[in-house]
Amino acid sequence: MYMIVLGIETSCDECAVAILDGDSFVARIVASQVKDHQVYGGVAPEVASRLHIEQISTTVDQAFKQANLLPKDIDLVAYTNRPGLMGSLLVGATFAKNFAWALKKPFVAVNHLLAHILVARYVHKNLQFPFLGIVASGGHTTLMLIRGYKEDDVQILGATMDDAIGECYDKVAKAYGLNYPGGPEVDHLAKQGASKAFNFPQPKLNRRFAGQYDLSYSGLKNAVINQRHQFRREGFDDSLVNIMAGFQYAAIEQLIRTIDRAAHDFKINQVVIGGGVAANSYLRQCMKEKSHLNFFDLPLSLCGDNGEMIAYYGKELYFAQDKQGDSLTVGVMPRVNLFRYQRV
Asked: Minimal CA–CA distance to 336: which of 113, 168, 25, 171?
């Protein structure tokens, strides 16, 4: 059904707004805070929330100008309410709910982890349910079986037991003096190195406490950071590219092996990877080389946090819920308890 949807995403350090007009996006505005956080070597939550307060009204105004629309033209407001930084989520949620209330329009609160994956249905019209969805980002590494748009249709297969893969990239990059965000820096250096020059470990999880599709990145992070001391002591400056290549190989290999295992066990060959790490060139190359898997890749612009995924998923969720919008009493949730979902 035809609708005009305003999507607002403020879960972390991107103030992103998009407008979906029918089947086309007519506005996409992102107010990035990356440079503001580089001095801290990572996202500073207090700084992020203050910047969102400064940016959100202007960003929404710019989106309407780009779309050549007026606020009254909107049929639905979708916004991120989980998971993310508490202050950042509150800014987006407060703005979105008041905006919708003033215009007497319905609104839906969106789990942006699911939005990262389900936006692939907008990009790839041939992607059918069920499929495997992997969120690989700075805050999350989660493997899901997606059977539909509603949260009851999502089954959690596995998640990281400690650090997320993107967090691991950022902490390794910071330890070696690379710029934030660390993912692109590591990816660039790794292309110049030999992935087998350093044999970094794969985790050995105690399956009494970890599921068969769970992951762990803290051990790899510590091993790579500890290698820094020997690297500096011996003065091998040209080893940096090999260390990054070895690290990237170990990080991506764990993720690929887990995807392979789940695809085999559930007899599903459709795979979507969303989140910032989905932009990693080595991960994309490895997935495209898997002839037994049908990998639905996302454009780089949709890998990080963005308003398009919120607008699209918000619209689909609204109809999946029989056009039931959310209440003003719906709050924000900085963390998502994965055990409230069905788990294997």
From this structure: 113
